Amino acid sequence: EGKQITLFMERSRETRVWVNDVEILAPDSSNLMAVSQTYNLTSQIKFGELNIITIEVDNSYTHSPKDAIT
What we know:
The chain has 70 residues and is mainly β. The protein contains no helices and five strands. It has strands at 6-9, 14-19, 22-24, 37-40, 53-58. The strands form two sheets. It has a three-stranded antiparallel beta sheet with strand order 3-2-5, with no helix packed on it. Strand 2 (14-19) and strand 3 form a beta hairpin. The protein is elongated and about 40 Å long. The N and C termini lie far apart (52 Å).
């Protein structure tokens, strides 16, 4: 208690994070693979209790044709 709790992710595209069923606002970089993402979880962490952290990552290429020929 009394410390800042952060979640750091890198090399992922669009991400969403929930702590105890409350969505944490995404950083501005939440959909850029080249930029790391840091979520501040402090406000939703229940210190000394069980916490559930849910992470959703979508690394798909939504702007690329699905049947592209390479």
